[in-house]
Amino acid sequence: MTRSRAPTAPPLAPYARVKQHLKDALAEGQYLPGALMPSEAELVARFGVSRMTVNRALRELQSEGLVDRVQGVGTFAAPLHRVASTLTIRDLHEEITTRGHRHDALVHLCRQERATAALAARLGLAAGEPVFHTLIVHRENGVPLQCEDRYVNPACAPGYLQVDFTRTTPTHYLLEVAPFWRAQYSIEAALPSAQEARLLGIAPGEPCLVVVRRTERRDTAITIARLVHPGRLYTLEGAFTP
Fold it and tell me: Which domains does the chain have, with CATH numbers?
């Protein structure tokens, strides 16, 4: 009896081979943020492809926020916290102070807990393993702007609970100690929980903008955060070109 062979995957297009090679190298940490990467001429010689093919691979990596290209200088590994050319994770403190306003934070919870089965699955932990939990309200000129309910994988940021989050934000701290490779977002209009409404000082029926964000480095989840903003105080903006 003969065994049928498993179907083989079709070979990658030339530009995709170059792109995947560089993407794998970035994921493995071969190029630190800001490091100069191989030139177009080097890639042409290494892969035996045209300059146009290499250029396409680099353009796609740039559009995904993985590299920065400087005309006449070269291609550089992008900061790991960048997730796309049009989507970045920005520190809320920076966002508020850029507007010329004052940011402060009220820390309502900062402790170690045991992960529930559902939370453990999302963080890549076993149920019952330790997880760090913070609940913080960020204010702009004294007005609550965001309720941040965050869980952190202790393996990625072991000193998380010792940080004074009235002086720095979780986002700022995590970008320094655990820069991420990938982020997932969900954004929706929803009603706050009773606790969120109380912490934000709004009516339970007031619409909110709710962002749930999960970040990871390579194959390890770093954090999951639920960010709730009063709808009347927050606008989600973006830009695109055709």
Answer: 14-78 (1.10.10.10), 87-233 (3.40.1410.10)
Angle (CA) 77-216-166 rounded to 5° is 95
Angstrom distance (rounded) from CA 193 to CA 226: 12
Q: What is the mean pLDDT of each run of 10 residues along the chain (242 residues)?
A: 55 89 84 87 94 91 83 81 47 76 94 95 93 96 93 96 95 87 85 95 92 85 94 63 41
Residue 158's CB is within 10 A of a number of other CB atoms, namely 13
Q: What is the DSSP string of 148-208?
A: EEEEE-TTT-TTGGGS-TTTS-HHHHHHHHS--SEEEEEEEEEPPPHHHHHHHT--TTS-E
Pull the structure tokens for residue 144: 């609550």
How many CB atoms lie under 10 A from the CB of residue 71? 5
Find all residues with CB under 8 Å of 225, minimum gap 6, and list them: 148, 149, 150, 151, 170, 212, 213, 214
**Residue 195: HSE in the Cβ half-sphere, 13 Å Cα cutoff:** 8
Beta pairing class for 103-114 and 87-88: unpaired
For the entire predicted model, the pTM comes to 0.64
Alpha helices, H only, the chain: 14-27, 40-47, 51-63, 92-98, 117-123, 170-177, 194-200
